[in-house]
Amino acid sequence: MPMNPRYRSPVDLPGVIPVFPLAGALLLPRGQLPLNIFEPRYLAMIDDALRDGHRLIGMIQPDGVTESPRLKPALFKVGCVGRITQLAESGDGRYIIELTGVARFRIEEELTVNTDYRQCRVTYAPFADDFVARKGEDAVDREALLRALTDFMTANDMTADWDDIKQAPTEALVNGLSMMSPYGAPEKQALLEAPDLKTRAELLVAITEIELAKGNVEGEPPLQ
Q1: pTM score, whole prediction
Q2: What does the pLDDT read at residue 161?
């Protein structure tokens, strides 16, 4: 989705951002992630992001530590910042938003803040290539990716709009399939941290082939 501001390099993004820890949620550059916001602390986070004008939220996964009133879960070090590009009020106190991914970040420090939501000092420098749309597309084995997708959908009795899939740019295809994949938090984190588009595509194919192999084991159903 096109955005009004253009982010050309790490210096175009703030060094401190609010973060939204959400297990299993994957945002990648130029991908769209819909979110249903209902917790008061995250409603406040959205309000503050809109009020401050930057409209940026850092999506990141907790590392698996159970959250409690006295203990915040540790976070993975790498996430992806997204801009709020759509927002609707549900009428019952919720926000329905869509984030469009801008660039990945690495947490340098979690700050002590007065807000109920968490904020971190981050760097985007390790992911400068994220600011270049469609970088590395020519290195992706698109046919292998489509074969893996076809096999997965066949094994799970799923259908797709193949005309749209075949016409999609390779970056949108790789990142979109990674974001929509039904895999667990470790797999999603590995896809996020892949150094380039080619590696992400190869990893997605490998994970899919592993899941298909598991489904072929007698007595084990395919992943749904």
Answers
A1: 0.91
A2: 86
